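Here is one record:
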Amino acid sequence: MTDRTNINNLKQRVLIVDDELEYCLSMKDLFEESGFSCSHSTDPDMVLDLLKSCEIDIILLDLKMPRMSGIDLLKKIRVYNSRIPVIIVSGHIDIETTVQAMQIGAMNVLKKPVRFSSMLEEISCILKPHSEVSDTLLPLVSDSPIICSHKGMLDIIYSLKKVAETNAPVLITGESGTGKELIADEIHRLSQRSDKKFVKLNCASLPESLLESELFGHKKGAFTGADKDRPGRFNTAHKGSMFLDEMGDMSLMIQAKLLRVLQDSQVTALGADEPKSVDVRIITATNKNLQQMMSDGTFREDLYYRLSVVHFELPPLRERKGDILLLAEAFREQACREYGRQIRGFDSEVENLLLSHLWPGNIRELKNCVQRSVIFCENDLISIEDLPAQYKDIPSRGWSDEYERAIDNINKELIEEALRKSQGKKTMAAELLNMDRKTLYNKMKKLNIRD
């Protein structure tokens, strides 16, 4: 049963998801008496439809419900719209559930019965319109296909629109599988060139002679086998964008020609007498250490500074623990659609393993693991037996360790953001965090946060 009364007015909107109708109705009365607009649903299967039809500011979510657990619904909510704050409110709370909910992205976990005044205080803190600290921790612009809650990634994503509006060259670095091409796709999608071509080329996949021809084109007879004129990728991408992946693998000769194109906005095809003007936005990516390559003389310093007007360094997945289950859930749903499977999630042992693994192959490795698990899973939950063989013997950390780490990570991000907003003034930062100065000092010391 769903009540949509007044949910589209200007009041802050609370959605209560609980299978006990009496609890929903009593909480609805209390919230509306306190000036909120409130909706409720006793059917977890209806929640996503409700979110699609109405603007919701915060969700209060029960854990134990028929047909779908609160954890499973939380995963679906985070994949659908990771900006909506969710508070778990349940009479069935333990450390394992708390850690699981926080890893997926719950703002807090409250055990029933909860004093309504305490709940109001918690909600007001999360929804406070002028709280810059809490705003920066809400994950992701809602129309972005990039799933994350990691602060470093969020900083990058929030910068993409501003960067995309310019024609500045962008360099994206990071380990293999961290999502460099996805960031490049977003830059083009958000740019004024989005209706033009987006040409991609992996520079490591071609030998020098072929790469030169692919990039700059050639005239008929320029070399053996050149039986006709061929435009290069720069000409094809004219007025659009070009993504050069693994550009750290370019030879010095190709680097020199690329530098001239960037300087002059002109391309000379192999065998041609005259250059041709091109207007192309360049986005490059590499997993190589370009600073070390410049020191070694294998990458041109002048080209580096041309390409890195804007530089994004993507963190590896092992540093994005809070994103692992979000990404795994998204890949599970994608694989289920692709392979026609009905699998509703991962059991707790698998989730613990996913969080424990270091993922040297990053997001690409995680996606491959989930896809293979979906194919071989014969039940409605993916278990250890369904995982590829190399993952079955990975040692896992205890949930208590994960719980402590989750709490520490949240506290550290809040404190660092408060210090940044207060320009290092601890008294002001303490006020933003609603704690006294001594408590702030103690937490900074524990979390190794520098003054």
